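[Meeting: bench + compute handoff]

Bench side (C.D.) handed over the final construct sequence. Compute side (W.E.) agreed to return the predicted structure before the next meeting so the bench team could plan truncations. Sequence as handed over:
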Amino acid sequence: IVNYKNKSHAVTAEVIVPQSGAEGVIVAVGGSIGGWSLYTKDGKPKYCYNFFGLNRYVVEGTAKIPAGKHQVRMEFKYDGGGIAKGGTVTLYVDGKKAGEGRVDQTEPFIFSADETLDVGNEFGSPVTPDYPTPKKFSGEVNWVEIDVDKDAEDFDHLITPEERLQVAMAIQ
């Protein structure tokens, strides 16, 4: 996974929400002793940052994600000024602001030696006990993109198909 620690970053996922609603993990890193998760609960987007299992900072969207294809995005604007600082978290659905909150402190280097990056589920220990059961996302996660520093700045808060193609071609 790209190094996003001690930097501003954004996580964007294209999801398909079923008629029954969105529930579960979209993408998560780490687990109960530290990590973060972008997920849905009661149909709303949520983000949890777990600081060493000591503090959990949660940001919740204000409205349910409707059925259909959507982009769910979390932007973390790092405070800067050294390592392990905090930042502002903003949630977006289809480029529209859906929620905002604060993470007061972050882990400076690694979350765990044995936890993973999981898409559409969380297979290890949970970042948060707030997850619905099961943790698996109730719809489909088509793709996830993590952008860092200046690449995370996106004024319309959406990733277009052209931008995804540009990234794919740059990797080759």
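W.E. noted at the follow-up: The helical segments are 161-171. C.D. will use this when planning the next construct.
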